[in-house]
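Let's do one together. I've listed all components of the complex below, 714 residues spread over two lines.
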Amino acid sequence: MFGFFVLLAATLNFGYVLGDIDNPRLHNVYELYAAVVVNIIATILKFGDRTQIGAVHLATSLVASIQLIVAALVWIWARHVDPGGLTGQHMSSVVSIAAGALLANIVSIVLLVVETVSYRRR
Amino acid sequence: MANLLQLLGRGKPARPRPDSLRRYRVDVPMELPTTDAVFLVLRRMRTPLVVIVSVFAIMTFGLSMMPGTEENPERLAVFDSFYVISYTGLTIGYGEVPHEFSYAQRMWVTATIYACVIAWSYSIGALLSLSQEQTFRQAIRLQRFGRKVRGLQAPFVLVVGYGQAGEAVCRALEDQGRDFVVLDEDPQRVQQLALDGYSSDHPGFAASGRDPRMLGLAGLGHDRCEAVLALTDSDETNLSVVMSVNLLRPELMVIARCSDREHAQQMHDFAADVIINPFDRYGAYLVMALRRPAGFRLASWLMSKRGSNLPHRLSHLTDGQWVVCADGTFGFEVTRDLESAGLDVILVDPADGRPDVSDAVGFIAGAESDIVNMANAAHARIENDQLFIAVRQNSAVNAAPLQAFDADSVFIPTELLAREAVARITSPNYWSFIDHVLHEDDEWDRRVMDEIVAVVGDETPISTRLDLDFTSAPAVVRWLNGHELTLGDLVRDPDERDVRLAVYPAVLVRSGRRIFTPGMDEKLKEGDTLLLLGRELDLAVVRSTVFHDSAVEYVATGREVATAWVFRQLQKVTGREKATASRGPVPPPDEG
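Okay, and this is what the predicted structure of the assembly comes out as:
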């Protein structure tokens, strides 16, 4: 269950980041939106886990969620508030923040893989 | 007499061993596996939270997909729809922004309202049912208890077992202004702790003292824990507390209750500081009351509750035949004690009917049932009204009828236990004084009792410890540097030095040695420790005297010294003048 959400979060995140960093047409807002939601669910799924690896999972998911939420806030600001509209400069900062979230998600996946492998060995 | 000393010696504390049975130092366990309530909440709230997030996500996405009206054909942006869904989901909304909705959008918002209401009610219901759950409440209570114990700043005593004895001990501890933590297996008794009306809130928890982790949570590993009292009515639980303390915190003082010899021996093996077997003690006290009435009166006075009067001398207590009507270990113990004091004792089983007491001088009704005891005691009194009657009272509810019956002596095991435990825990010096009283001869006891009563009065005195060092008696230390101060001076009233305060110095500890009832002309030295008995206000006066240079000088010499610096300087000048004046020009010897 958790594995599904973590993987989905990472793939959505990756898909959003992919493409020219300052071209708004290459970064679909719905993809960002889905990444935020799935990441938040992945974070919730690790609530109350007292194992060491569970705590690290919670930390990485939380970091990814925060990064993505910040990216979404920047996008909202650029799209609705800034008089200049959604420029390439704005877009590049949104995507770079989302790329940071991607890093956290990749760490999550590495942890997941490590956990799975060590589980098999036992 | 030798017999008697042997008797009392049996109840003496086990000699504290230099080494405990601990070989490895192990940290006191604290955490129970399922204690953290927060984690429990978070784990249980996973599904409800995921449901809420999903509903919001789907509804936001759907709204942003719905076509707009003809005037505003554009669909809502993702942020706009998130905004609308947020206020709709949480509050059932307040209008259509940024412009009027199309019918498709309105239908979607209607669906959102119902979906959100269901999601919220499900989550709130889950949270509420969790908060009703017994395990969760237990976890919360445990956590709160642990936090309270960890937050204790003052030294405290851990009391395991809050029955009659435990309650009496806690009351006495509170009288002395000390903190304590209570553990008892029975949740009702722990609730009683909150209802018993202590002046401050003392942490208590319903758990067995057999679990070392519970002891740890209750403060066994805490720096400020001073002593552990095992007062449950189960010997095995008490033994397990003694073991845990000996192996985990051997430096702490342990006082344990015990009702049979086998367990007492095992507690000795684990170096319990004090083991109190009330059954065993009662016989010894009875013999003491018979052989050494003054010593008995003084000791029981010093051990009784604050504010009790000097006990009466037990009358018509004489040598002769004693009848003990008791079952269980009590009969065995008390018979042994009386016999070893040279009395002629007949032990009868209460099941055999009413005992014959026509030739006896004393009767002890010591069955396990209060009703049987009362009946036997009443019968004994009818048969022989010169009899000394002792009755064992097992339950506090029977106190009033027993008081009306007015037996010569009432044995309440839990009270005896509590009194000894409190006397020992008050301070080592206080107990050493009582111990000294128990072992001195009767003449000495009578003299000391008269002295104390003359100074302090009829009510049980309060004890206090006074260290003559720089932190707790700076003025005395400064004064002793070059001058002399006697013990008699210290107990003078700093307002009028001819008045003696109601304070009786019972013990003087000097370089590790105890001097009992030191003389009034004893010269004090820096580093001495005093155990003072007296009235509360007068003790407070002594404690303040030792902080003020002028007060110390006044009680020592009678010179009134000004408190303000200016006047002191003035006094020095005039004093010097006076001194030179009085030395004066000595009249020259007559040269003839």
